[in-house]
Specification:
Blueprint lengths: L10 H17 L21 H34 L27 E2 L16 H13 L16 E3 L23 E5 L1 E2 L19 E2 L2 H5 L41 H11 L14 H4 L24 E8 L6 H16 L5 E8 L11 H11 L8 E4 L1 H7 L21 H10 L5 E6 L3 E2 L3 H13 L6 H5 L5 H4 L2 H14 L7 H6 L51 E3 L17 E2 L18 E4 H14 L2 E2 L4 H9 L3 E3 L12 H8 L34 H9 L10 H6 L10 E2 L16
Parallel strand pairs: 6-7, 6-9, 7-8, 11-15
Antiparallel strand pairs: 1-4, 2-3, 3-5, 9-13, 10-16, 11-13, 12-14
Helix pairs in contact: 5-7, 10-16, 16-17
Protein name: Major facilitator superfamily transporter
Keywords: Membrane, Transmembrane, Transmembrane helix
InterPro entries: DUF3405
């Protein structure tokens, strides 16, 4: 072994030496000190060879890694200089804008909208430079902690937007005369709450000076009370002051005993005198195989001219057979049925259109299988409200259409042809005049009837003149002013064009849009390709020229198509699905098209029957979000974009936002490569409350429910701060996978 002084020592010899020393020491007197100094030794140490090799290997690896990185960096710079590679794109400009904070204001700070100073938009900072400068000043300024004086929450008010004249009251349970209490709203909005950046409450005559907190909105549908009483067991934590106001002393509803189908049917029956007579329903001919034919059961209606009767409307919720419904979904569905059907006296009827994804399931050949799948597809309380459909069924009904496999997806599939089952559903249900196409991931913080009724009535009053041009633009009140100012601006842009770089792409596109002025749409605009035949016998025609029309044609005419996003022209854009056109002659260009992202909409029977015949007889189809608008354009039907209130999560400069979202041809949102709907520019929607892949709606909804999101919000912040959030009515999409926190029950 090695001694401390570095000498090698033989252990055997050392032991012999120790024995000799021991014998000598025995002979030495006790008090006599032994002569000679012994060398100090140590215990054996581990070999150093492994440590040296390991260190050497690590050094070589680090050196090699450094040389490799240096070489790759040099190669990357060379590729950039030669043009073989492009540098990574910079982050979107909007990511540098600061987040808005007053969306999360609490119920203890309510103030009337007239007295409110909104956090956004700020008229003093509506340009990109001023917004960036203000953000820098706020970041460098010393923080001032402002105390918050807690106040009691105000008294809520019942919110009932339904005109009760002639309405026979409907109940969840006729025997007990039990019904769902009206929603509880609170006057005003949280102090500093932002204004919508797009759309308007005043435009539709909606009440935007009230807000809804979670218990007043969802409490009647199972939030905030225990499962043992028929609730969800969620929402038992957080700020609960005043949460029982919504019940008004009544007992909570036990939803384990509710049969919505029965309640809805009885409501329609009790109020049948308010609506047009029911026509005879159609049979499912391809399965029933009856004697005779469709002529024997042609639907007939006896119109009553002495009394103004209401149209019947269906709300068709698209879902699928193995969808897993959680309690948060149940809140949403109960609200739809109660607020649209029961509280309105049957003006709307809710249906579930259930997609059976397994084409081999024998639902069309075996009644037992059909009923079993239907029962398993919906929660118990919604049994009797569903209709099954499958892609194989659609291929039978709409056979003969070319199988283009655009983006490797079938033409009869739910993604490319969502409207096929809806069109056939409308064809088989002649009792309905309008169909609201709705989705499972939509949420609304207000009353559904208030939204549907106001939007529908406003759309029916819109004049035809300039309608398609207004439909193609976002309405931004902070930049465009009043709706009349907006109409005038659109007319000027349409008649004279705009000096915009989008014009560069017109000649390159090689299509007919090469002139500075784009003529307005006036009447039907059918496809012009050779062999592209469509039925035009029943298409509405303009009564006069647009120059002679004084914005009167179309006023009072029910809208055939109502959307919640602009109906933009996909021509010349880089929208990835613009060319999903089937059955048309595209050798000389595509037919006229219009697209509205998100399929949520209202469609008339006239439009759906036209779509049905176009697909079944002419073999025409387009992508789901493009087909209804394009069909309405071809046949001269009335389509309306309803600019509902849309919010944004950051402090965008309003002039910059308007330039980004209406960056298409001649001030529209589409028609050019610079369109915000082009694939590479759709990221601008991520912070809005209404777009198919936006992130803000889900976060806002979860915060409103009282949960933490990204470390903010939650129970402690509500209790110690301004209280739970209170939001005005706003449409949110998408909202997916909300994980509720439930009460702990004994035995769980």
């Amino acid at each position: 072994y090695i001694a401390l002084d570095g000498r090698w020592v033989d252990g055997d010899k050392e032991r012999l030496s120790d024995d000799d020393d021991a014998s000598d020491s025995n002979a030495t007197p006790i008090l006599q000190r032994p002569s000679g100094a012994r060398s100090a030794t140590s215990y054996p140490l581990p070999p150093r060879r492994f440590t040296r090799y390991f260190t050497l290997i690590i050094v070589l690896i680090l050196v090699g890694l450094g040389l490799t990185l240096a070489r790759l960096s040099a190669l990357s710079e060379a590729q950039l200089r030669s043009g073989e590679a492009k540098p990574p794109p910079p982050p979107p400009t909007w990511e540098s804008f600061p987040f808005l904070k007053r969306y999360h204001g609490g119920i203890r700070t309510l103030i009337s909208r007239a007295d409110n100073k909104p956090e956004f938009p700020d008229p003093d900072n509506n340009t990109l430079e001023s917004t960036v400068q203000k953000d820098q000043q706020e970041q460098t300024a010393p923080s001032e902690e402002k105390g918050f004086q807690k106040r009691d929450i105000p008294q809520g008010q019942r919110f009932n937007p339904v005109n009760q004249d002639g309405v026979v009251e409907c109940y969840l349970n006729e025997e007990r005369k039990s019904n769902v209490p009206q929603l509880l709203a609170y006057p005003g909005i949280p102090k500093g709450f932002p204004d919508p950046i797009m759309g308007s409450y005043e435009l539709f005559g909606m009440n935007g000076d009230v807000c809804f907190e979670r218990y007043g909105r969802l409490g009647p549908y199972g939030l905030g009370y225990s499962k043992r009483w028929g609730g969800s067991g969620a929402g038992m934590e957080g700020h609960r002051e005043g949460s029982d106001q919504v019940w008004g002393g009544k007992t909570e509803i036990d939803y384990r005993e509710v049969n919505w189908a029965q309640a809805q049917q009885k409501c329609v029956q009790k109020n049948k005198s308010r609506f047009k007579p029911l026509p005879k329903g159609r049979k499912h001919f391809f399965t029933d195989m009856p004697v005779g034919g469709p002529e024997d059961e042609k639907p007939k209606r006896e119109e009553n001219q002495d009394k103004k009767l209401l149209p019947r409307q269906a709300v068709v919720i698209r879902t699928w057979h193995d969808y897993q419904y959680d309690d948060e979904d149940m809140f949403y569905l109960r609200a739809l049925i109660n607020e649209l059907s029961l509280q309105s006296g049957g003006e709307y009827t809710i249906h579930f259109l259930v997609h059976v994804k397994d084409n081999d399931m024998p639902i069309w050949s075996d009644d037992f299988t059909y009923q079993r799948v239907l029962n398993e597809s919906l929660p118990l309380e919604f049994r009797g409200m569903g209709t099954l459909w499958s892609e194989r069924q659609m291929s039978l009904i709409y056979g003969g259409i070319a199988e283009t496999n655009y983006r490797d997806l079938p033409i009869h599939g739910a993604y490319r042809s969502t409207n096929m089952p809806l069109s056939y559903f409308a064809h088989m249900h002649p009792e309905y005049d309008f169909f609201w196409h709705w989705e499972m991931d939509i949420r609304y913080t207000g009353h559904f009837y208030h939204l549907f009724d106001k939007v529908g009535k406003w759309a029916d009053q819109q004049p035809r003149k300039g309608l398609w041009e207004r439909n193609g633009r976002f309405y931004i009140p902070s930049e465009h002013g009043s709706w009349e100012d907006f109409k005038h601006m659109v007319r000027v842009q349409t008649e004279h064009g705009t000096a915009h770089k989008a014009g560069m792409y017109e000649k390159v596109s090689g299509t007919e849009n090469t002139q500075v002025r784009t003529p307005p749409v006036w009447g039907p605009m059918p496809p012009t390709g050779e062999g592209d035949h469509i039925e035009t016998e029943n298409d509405p025609q303009p009564p006069t020229t647009p120059e002679k029309d004084n914005y009167s044609w179309g006023v009072g005419e029910p809208a055939d198509f109502i959307t919640f996003n602009p109906l933009f022209d996909p021509h010349a854009t880089n929208w990835i699905l613009a060319e999903d056109v089937t059955g048309y002659n595209t050798s000389a260009g595509f037919p006229p098209r219009r697209t509205a992202i998100i399929t949520a909409s209202r469609l008339s029977r006239r439009l759906l029957e036209t779509m049905h015949r176009e697909t079944a007889l002419q073999r025409h189809s387009m992508f789901s979000e493009m087909w209804p608008g394009s069909c309405a354009l071809h046949h001269g039907l009335k389509a309306v974009y309803a600019p509902h209130p849309v919010y944004v999560d950051r402090r965008w400069p309003t002039s910059y936002l308007a330039a980004v979202f209406n960056n298409g041809l001649h001030g529209a949102s589409g028609g050019a490569r610079t369109s915000v709907f082009s694939d590479e520019l759709q990221h601008n929607f991520l912070g809005t409350t209404w777009y198919y892949h936006a992130g803000f709606p889900g976060n806002l909804w979860k915060r409103w429910l009282g949960y933490k999101v990204d470390g903010d919000g939650g129970e402690m912040e509500e209790v110690e701060g301004e209280g739970r959030m209170c939001l005005p009515g706003m449409l949110l999409h998408p909202v997916k996978h909300v994980d509720l926190i439930y009460e702990h029950r004994e035995g769980e």
